[in-house]
Write a structure and sequence with these properties.
The complex is a heterodimer of chains A (390) and B (671). Chain A is built from six helices and 18 strands. Chain A has helices at 2-12, 15-39, 41-49, 69-86, 95-117, 357-389; strands spanning 53-58, 62-67, 119-126, 130-147, 153-159, 171-174, 181-189, 192-196, 211-215, 228-235, 241-247, 254-258, 261-287, 294-305, 308-315, 320-322, 325-333, 344-351. In chain A, a hairpin with a 3-residue loop joins β1 and β2 (62-67). Chain A is globular. Chain B is mainly alpha-helical and 671 residues long. Chain B folds into three domains: 4-27 and 91-174, no CATH class; 177-324, no CATH class; 330-669, no CATH class. Chain B contains 29 helices and eight strands. Chain B has helices spanning 4-7, 9-21, 34-41, 54-66, 81-90, 92-95, 106-111, 125-128, 132-143, 152-171, 175-178, 187-192, 201-206, 208-219, 228-244, 268-277, 283-297, 303-323, 329-338, 340-360, 365-393, 401-423, 427-450, 465-497, 505-540, 549-569, 575-599, 610-640, 664-669, and strands at residues 44-47, 50-53, 71-72, 78-79, 99-103, 121-124, 181-182, 198-199. Classes of the chains: A alpha+beta (390), B mainly alpha (671). At the A-B interface, α2, α3, α5, β14 and β17 of A face α25, α26 and α29 of B.
């Protein structure tokens, strides 16, 4: 048993294993790059880079099972710890390389933390608008809300990890304490649009209130996909059923009266609360003179937190960092705005505990590489000089 | 969006109708004297978001039309881009006869029903004129197609239409000065212009506020009533002035006065607009317009014209200097006039020839010294050229794809020279000559292919000198090393193929060391550059890695470098393998450098040109052939003869003490 284990560690720590991982990573990076042209970034990323395994069709016909980048990076971590740290020869000459390996480990750990614990989304504000919520670019949620007397809303949230995997054919039912109904979600489609069932057009899905959900092919840019789903609300008292269609781009939530109480059901991009609010005072864009090329864009904002206000400028390459959240100037609009139109500014909002890991890794790696290669270069030069002298 | 060139189609058509009707008078164009040319060359103009010399503008405009920086006149004489531009502006009739529009496919002309001469040729505006209507209508149609989806002929038609439009814009520039504007009847107008029957464009701008006041007074609060005739005369005058003004996208030659926050320079048409809006005091600009009108009245080498040119030049220069816009203009003119990169290319080619002789007479010290000098000189020129470009734009050396070519060439050559300095094997020296020639040749071709200013303004996210100088520079050094390593790899493979110094193990050992050393050098920069790029992205967009094609390209270089290093340590590859791997590495560098731009996706897909695709394809075919040859040679030398060529087993290597340096790696690998 011990020898088998030892053998396994030998393999995991070997140069050959490292080379194999590098070559697979290289292949997947290449394939994933080409795949983006056809399928867009988000889908490619999910399929090639965030996966454990995948099937790639070479030349569009020959299916081959390949390890995903997530699996490969895990193996690389094991390989580098076993081979590049634990079992590596320890000495003056190996010091530089050892430092580089530590840097790579920092990078890999940072990548894992980012993958597991970071969240990102955006916050879009028109001038003079304020918000403390940001929303996801990719994930959805269903909000069940009841308006309160003071105008606020109490919400129950069903996150898409609970229903997105169902696909168009699955169905699932949720209930919660205090909720006067059960909600059944079915026919979830990643990209769809509601269509009026009229004339001789055959509805491809069940018709509710004269509409049905028409599935659409996935957009290359995932942000453009608008999910849709059918919901049935079953009253806990009496079992009366209410059917409805939810759509990601609907302008207003689906309104229903349950037990005589008004409820609003909304399929929307997942939202998160910021520990502070942002008020957009002014958005400025500068163009290079006599061109339509952006020279700079920036937002003057006020950060409001517990009664204190602070004026801040967010611009390209100059984000706002506060309480673990970072707000970046991402885009603006409307694209066809005239000189006096009200503009909006979009901030990318990221919360990433490993935000600074790449920087630490970079410093460590650079130092290690410089140390190692300088050592080599000097030895090399010395050897050459000796040769010339001889 | 309808392209701008189509919007002015209607206006242009009217002017053209008259141009067509007029008989062609082959009057010889008077040439400008050297002093006039010097002043025009250093005239600042705002274009592409920056202030540049008129000479630079002329250079790139002609390059875009013509594919080269010379214009051949019907009588066979050749003129410079600046002379051509001045002819377009001051002698539009003649300029229409110059064959400056390069057309690469006869299908383009077939589509316009214009007879073509050769498969690829240059045509004059007048030759294209019969097909102009068709050209603009087709271009309008194709402009709606995604550039990636267009066929080559469609792309060429769209480009040709843009060029023709720009040409028309240039040839109409002095239209405002060519024809005096009639002052109609009416008391107020007579008062304003002191009874003159005709006035110049500049007069109208000078009196714009008076004309506007007159217009308001005549119209009164309740309409013109019985004065409608006079009101019409004023309207007609304004209308005539507007027609005389050039299209708004013509040369922005007029700087605003003083150091205002207004960053936009103006064209004659915009001056007219500003004058009537009353937004700026325009006395300086009126003065400038008058000088232009004087030059246009009698262009050529008269004393009055010389004075007018001098006054115009000095005044614009003074205004630009006051705004802080003029500073680097003379330096830029000097850079382009020096043709530093052309001379550098010439000298590299010369050094290449010398190095060929050197290989015939390897022991000749004189030849070695001459070749070294012949490589050093163009290297120096190249470095100076790049440095001057940095000074002109106050930027680090690499901001555009064109600059990557210059910089990568320079780095590869400098590193090769360093290797030569260390080992004196003549290999790196010869490679420096070859790479220098190839790089600058490629640079020239690329510049002509793009035909746009190679020192453009930067878009917002790239506008940061810190990241451009760290991330971009280190990545490009990585590219350069990858290419150089690949080049040395060729020497190894070809040397083996032709059994050059067949039994000289030390020679091949040295080459392997060179390849491996350069690979490691490249890996250092590629790793650091790639991680820095991630940090920049994290600072700008909040993500370290986004799987953008250009990022992936850099990652692929890093991964390949790591594979080679670890494969060597593991004993999987040796001399032959390392050289072969270096060639594969160069192919990956080419993919990352140019290939990903062809994909047309992602944040970095700048500077895409279809001509690159062909060059890249040729490169890949050649490299694949070299790799196949390499595999064949390896098979011949090892399998057929049953013995390894160079690297014997690690144990047989000289001891560490006897031969320090890289060799101990072999021992490590066999631990």
């Amino acid at each position: 048993m011990y020898t088998i284990l030892r053998k396994a560690v030998d393999i995991l720590a070997s140069y050959g294993f490292a080379c194999l991982i590098f070559l697979f990573l290289l292949l997947l990076t290449y394939l994933g790059t080409l795949e983006q042209v056809e399928h867009g970034l988000y889908e490619t990323q999910q399929r090639y880079f965030a996966s454990l395994f995948l099937v790639h069709e070479f030349f569009g016909v020959v299916p081959v099972v390949l390890p995903g980048v997530r699996l490969l990076l895990t193996l690389l971590f094991i390989n580098i710890v076993c081979g590049g740290i634990v079992r590596m020869r320890k000495g003056w000459r190996q010091l530089g390389v050892m430092i580089v390996h530590v840097g790579i480990i920092v990078l890999l750990v940072g990548g894992y933390i980012t993958y597991r614990f970071s969240m990102d989304g955006h916050l879009t504000l028109y001038e003079n608008q304020q918000s403390s919520e940001f929303q996801s670019y990719h994930t959805w949620e269903i909000a069940l809300a009841q308006p309160n007397e003071d105008g606020s809303r109490s919400e129950y949230i069903v996150s898409d990890t609970m229903f997105a995997h169902l696909g168009p054919d699955g169905s699932t039912t949720f209930q919660a304490e205090g909720l006067p109904f059960e909600i059944t979600i079915r026919g979830y489609t990643e990209n769809a649009r509601p269509v009026r069932a009229a004339g001789n057009r055959a509805a491809s899905n069940p018709v509710v209130d004269g509409f049905y959900l028409e599935p659409l092919p996935l957009e290359k840019e995932n942000e453009r996909n608008a999910a849709g789903a059918y919901v049935t609300l079953t009253e806990k008292n009496g079992g009366v059923k209410h059917d409805g269609i939810l759509w990601g781009l609907a302008t207003a939530p689906l309104a229903m009266a349950i037990d005589g109480q008004p409820w609003q059901i909304d399929l929307r991009r997942q939202r998160w609360e910021l520990p502070f609010a942002i008020h957009l005072d002014r958005f400025t864009r500068e163009l290079h003179p006599r061109t339509s090329m952006a020279k700079a864009f920036m937002s003057d904002v006020t950060k409001i937190e517990g009664g204190t206000e602070q004026k801040i400028k967010i611009s390209m390459n100059e984000p706002l960092r506060h309480k673990g959240y970072t707000l970046y100037q991402a885009s603006w609009g409307p694209a066809d705005a005239g000189p006096n139109d009200r503009l909006f500014s979009t901030f990318a909002v990221v919360r990433n505990p490993a935000d600074k890991f790449p920087l630490y890794a970079c410093v460590i790696i650079t130092f290690g590489l410089l140390f190692h290669f300088s050592q080599k270069l000097f030895r090399f030069l010395r050897a050459e000089q000796k040769k010339v002298a001889a | 969006m309808i392209p701008r060139f189509l919007a002015t189609f209607v206006i242009g058509a009217t002017v053209l109708a008259s141009a067509l009707a007029e008989p062609i008078v082959p009057t010889p164009t008077p040439r400008w004297d050297a002093e006039a040319l010097r002043m025009f060359a250093t005239l600042p103009v705002q274009d592409g978001g920056r202030i540049k010399p008129l000479d630079t503008y002329a250079n790139f405009t002609l390059l875009k039309f013509n594919g080269k920086r010379k214009c051949e006149l019907p009588d066979g004489t050749k003129i410079t881009p600046l002379e051509w531009l001045l002819d377009c502006v001051f002698f539009p009739e003649q300029a229409q006869e110059f064959r400056v529009f390069r057309v690469d496919s006869p299908e383009v002309l077939d589509a316009l029903a214009v007879p073509h001469t050769a498969k690829r040729d240059r045509y004059s505006y007048r030759q294209l004129l019969p097909g102009r209507g068709k050209l603009f209508s087709l271009a309008g149609q194709y402009a709606g197609i995604d550039p990636k989806e267009r066929t080559p002929v469609q792309t060429q038609l769209v480009n040709l239409a843009q060029n023709v439009h720009e040409f028309e814009s240039l040839t109409r520039f002095m239209h405002f000065a060519a024809h005096p504007i009639a002052v109609g009847a009416g008391k107020k107008l007579q008062e304003i212009f002191a009874g003159a029957e005709e006035v110049r464009y500049s007069d109208i701008i000078a009196k714009a506020s008076a004309i506007r006041d007159a217009f308001m007074a005549i119209r009164g609060p309740h309409g013109a009533g019985e004065n409608s005739g006079e009101l019409n005369a004023v309207s007609q005058l304004i209308h005539d002035a507007e027609t005389a003004g050039a299209p708004s996208d013509a040369l922005a030659l007029f700087p605003p006065s003083g150091k205002t926050s207004d960053t936009e320079w103006l064209t004659p048409a915009e001056l007219l607009q500003a004058a009537f809006m009353g937004t700026a005091t325009l006395s300086d600009q009126v003065e400038l317009l008058r000088r232009l009108e004087e030059i246009a009245a009698h262009p050529g080498q008269t004393t009055e014209v010389r004075t007018a040119i001098a006054v115009f030049h000095d005044k614009v220069t003074a205004l630009a200097t006051a705004r802080g816009d003029y500073g680097k203009i003379p330096l830029e003119v000097a850079l382009y006039n020096s043709r530093v990169f052309n001379y550098s290319l010439f000298l590299f080619l010369l050094s290449f020839v010398l190095s060929a002789f050197l290989w015939l007479k390897l022991r000749s010290r004189l030849l070695y010294a001459m070749t070294s000098l012949a490589v050093l000189l163009p290297t120096l020129l190249l470095v100076v050229g790049i440095t001057v470009r940095c000074i002109i734009r106050s930027r680090p050396p690499v901001t555009t794809l064109y600059e990557t070519i210059l910089f990568i060439t320079a780095v590869a050559v400098v590193v090769a020279l360093f290797i030569e300095y260390v080992n004196r094997q003549r290999v790196a020296l010869s490679l420096a000559a070859i790479l220098g020639s190839l790089g600058l040749f490629l640079g020239n071709k690329y510049e002509a292919l793009e035909g746009t200013d190679t020192m453009p303004s930067m878009i917002a996210v790239l506008d940061t000198n810190f990241w451009l100088s760290t991330h971009v520079t280190s990545i490009t050094v990585g590219y350069a090393a990858g290419m150089l390593a690949g080049a040395i790899g060729h020497v190894y493979i070809l040397g083996r193929l032709f059994k050059f110094r067949r039994d000289d193990t030390a020679f091949y050992k040295t080459i392997t060391r060179m390849v491996y050393g350069v690979l490691c050098f490249g890996l250092l920069f590629a790793v650091v550059g790639t991680v820095l790029g991630g940090i920049w992205a994290n600072d700008s967009w909040g993500r370290f890695w986004g799987w953008d094609p250009k990022e992936n390209g850099a990652l692929m270089i890093v991964l390949w470098g790591l594979t080679v290093i670890h494969a060597r340590l593991g004993g999987y590859i040796r001399d032959f393998g390392i050289s072969m791997a270096a060639i594969v590495g160069a192919m990956i560098v080419a993919f990352s450098w140019f290939g990903v731009n062809l994909l047309g996706v992602g944040l970095h897909s700048y500077g895409f040109t279809s001509g690159i695709f062909r060059a890249l394809l040729v490169f890949y075919v050649v490299e694949v052939v070299v790799l196949l040859v390499g595999a064949g040679v390896w098979f011949r030398d090892t399998r057929l003869q049953g013995k390894p060529v160079v690297a014997p087993a690690a144990a047989k290597l000289p001891s560490r003490k006897a031969k320090p340096g890289w060799t101990e790696e072999w021992a490590t690998s066999k631990k």
